[in-house]
Amino acid sequence: MSDNKLLKREIIRTNDGSHSLFVPSLNENYHSTHGAKQEAEHIIIKDALSYKAEQKQVLNVLEIGFGTGLNALLTLQYALEHDIEVHYIGVEKYPVLESEYKQLNYAGSDKKLQELFGKLHSLLWEQEFAVSKPFHLKKIQSDFREMKLPTNHFDVVYFDAFGPDIQPELWTAAIFKNIYKSMKDGGVLTTYSVKGDVRRAMKSVGFEVKKIPGPPGKREITRAIKTN
Q: Do the Cβ atoms of 157 and 179 come closer than 8 Å?
């Protein structure tokens, strides 16, 4: 299914003890070296999922950059703990290999969580599955620039592509326009980047864009809302 010869990766340990992946050819990490898990818990769970879950108990979530599966795992945990229903679509061009995800330590010593994390990765692509009762997953292998997304569908978007300095073609108005159209009114998008060009691209397609406090090692992040 994947052509990972173009994206060689190394497993690294970040400052909070959780793993990330490093891509030597891009000199880029999948997560913050200050702490992969604490970054995701802040940007993805606190400032996106939990923010929207205060308003709705059934959420459609889109992740741009499924990557290591950390964001999906944390979302699954949140759904189980807070009794919300999540329908999750993760888009990824270069899926992580079994030999890679089996080494990642996000589930710790929790056997049930380890099983669920393995399931997130091992499920077939392009099909929706119920990973657990409240959490449904569909993984799509695609270039972000070629995404075919439903209209007026997503409540929450995690934009977790490689950085705009590394791959600027993934942070354009055209991509944000596609995502904007796929979101419901009031939908929320979060990303770690606060680069001016990124925020201007978001604003140009209609998002209401704000800088908000970031996790350790990152002073600010971006939250964008699709306004009515």
A: yes
**Whole-Å CA distances, 207 to 23, 82, 155, 221:** 31, 28, 14, 15
pLDDT in tens, 72-120: 999 999 999 999 999 999 999 999 999 999 999 999 999 999 999 999 9
pLDDT of residue 162: 92
Residues in the chain: 228
Distance CA 123, CA 137 (A): 9
Query: Which pTM value belongs to this model?
Result: 0.95
Rg (CA), the chain: 16
35-226 is a CATH 3.40.50.150 domain = yes
Residue 2: pLDDT above 50?
no
Q: What are 59's strand-pairing partners? A: 86
Pairing of strands 154-159, 58-64: parallel
C-alpha distances out from residue 38 to 43, 142, 158, 172, 218, Å = 9, 27, 15, 27, 11
Structure tokens at 2: 């994947």
For CA atoms 186, 35, 66, 128, the dihedral sign is negative
Number of helical (H) and strand (E) elements in the chain, helices listed first: 7, 11
